[in-house]
Design goal:
The complex is a heterodimer of chains A (105) and B (166). Chain A has one domain. Chain A is 46% helix and 8% strand. Chain A has five helices and two strands. In chain B, helix 4 links the parallel strand 3 and strand 4. Chain B has five helices and five strands. Chain B has a five-stranded parallel β-sheet. The chains are: A mainly alpha (105), B alpha/beta (166).
Chain lengths: 105, 166
C-alpha cells in the first residue's frame, strides 16, 4: 500500500490516492485533501457532508452513495453537485478520507 | 527529497463525455436498468439524456409511473414453471416480491428515482410519436420534463453521445 505525504503528514493511500486508514484522517488533513483537488474552502455545508459520511461509514462499513447522503443525511443532491463539482460521489469520499462508494445508487 | 503527493485524477479536464439512454419498456424490471446506469453516469459528471418512447412512456406518465409491474410470463429467468406464470395473481405477487427486493437495497421507486436523476441534472425527453399515439399532454407527464422531441431533434441533441437502447 503506497504511503504519501499530504500537508506534511504521512498517510496510507490506495493506488489512486484515496486514504485507506480511517484513523489517519483529521480535519486539517481534509482541508489539504480538498485543496489538492481544487476545493479551496470547506464551508459549513461541506463539513455537514463530511461529518455525515464519516459517521455513516463507521456504522455501515461502506461509503454512503449520493442518494443515501440525500435521503438519510438530509443534504440535497443538487447541493452535493455544487459542493463537490462534477464528480460529487468520488470527491466527497476523497475529502472525507474514505473509499469510493460501492453502491450503484 | 520529497515526492509529489499521490492525488486521484478526477478527470475534470477530460473532454466532456455524453451518454443517452432510450427507454422503450414499461415493465418494472426493464425500467430500472436505464435509470441505474444514468445515475452512475451522472455521478461521474457525464452529460446524460434519457429518451422515453413507446411503452417506456409509462415510466414518465404520472398515472402509471408509480405502479409499473413485473410479469413472470415468458421470463424463464424467474425459474417458475412456465405453466404457472399466467395464473391470476402471479403478476401482483411477482411485482410485490421485486419491489421488496429493491426496497431492501434502498433503491427508490420509479418516481423518486427520476426526481433524484433530475436533481443530478439528467435531461428527460419524451418521444413525439408516442405522445401522439397515446394521446398524452405535457400535464400527463412528469414535472420538469425537458421536452417532447421527434427523432430528428433527438439525434441532434445526442450528437457525439454513446447511446444505449433498453
Amino acid at each position: 500500500m503506497p504511503v504519501t505525504t499530504i500537508g506534511g503528514k504521512e498517510v496510507h493511500v490506495d493506488d489512486e490516492g484515496f486514504l485507506t486508514e480511517y484513523d489517519e484522517w483529521d480535519e486539517e488533513l481534509a482541508k489539504e485533501l480538498a485543496a489538492s483537488i481544487g476545493i479551496s474552502e470547506l464551508t459549513d455545508d461541506h463539513w455537514k457532508t463530511i461529518t455525515f459520511l464519516r459517521s455513516d461509514f463507521k456504522e455501515q462499513g461502506e461509503t454512503a452513495t449520493l442518494r443515501r447522503v440525500s435521503a438519510v443525511g438530509g443534504i440535497p443532491t443538487k447541493s452535493l453537485f455544487q459542493l463537490f463539482p462534477k464528480k460529487p460521489a468520488r470527491k466527497m469520499s476523497y475529502v472525507s478520507g474514505l473509499p469510493k462508494p460501492a453502491g450503484c445508487i | 527529497m520529497t515526492d509529489a503527493p499521490i492525488v486521484p485524477d478526477f478527470g475534470d479536464d477530460d473532454e466532456d463525455r455524453k451518454i443517452s439512454f432510450v427507454c422503450s419498456k414499461g415493465s418494472l424490471d426493464m425500467a430500472y436498468p436505464g435509470l441505474i446506469m444514468a445515475s452512475g453516469a451522472l455521478e461521474l459528471g457525464i452529460e446524460t439524456h434519457i429518451f422515453f418512447t413507446f411503452w417506456g412512456m409509462d415510466m414518465i406518465n404520472k398515472k402509471t409511473m408509480g405502479s409499473l409491474k413485473f410479469s413472470p410470463v415468458g421470463n424463464p429467468a424467474t425459474h417458475m414453471p412456465a405453466a404457472l406464470a399466467p395464473f391470476p395473481g402471479m403478476t401482483t405477487m411477482a411485482t410485490h416480491q421485486m419491489k421488496k427486493q429493491l426496497d431492501d437495497l434502498d433503491i427508490p421507486d420509479i418516481p423518486t428515482f427520476l426526481e433524484h436523476l433530475q436533481d443530478m441534472g439528467c435531461h428527460l425527453w419524451a418521444c413525439k410519436m408516442s405522445v401522439d399515439m397515446f394521446d398524452l399532454t405535457e400535464d400527463d407527464m412528469i414535472d420538469g420534463l425537458d421536452g417532447v422531441l421527434n427523432v430528428g431533434e433527438f439525434m441532434e441533441i445526442i450528437e457525439g453521445a454513446q447511446t444505449m437502447f433498453i
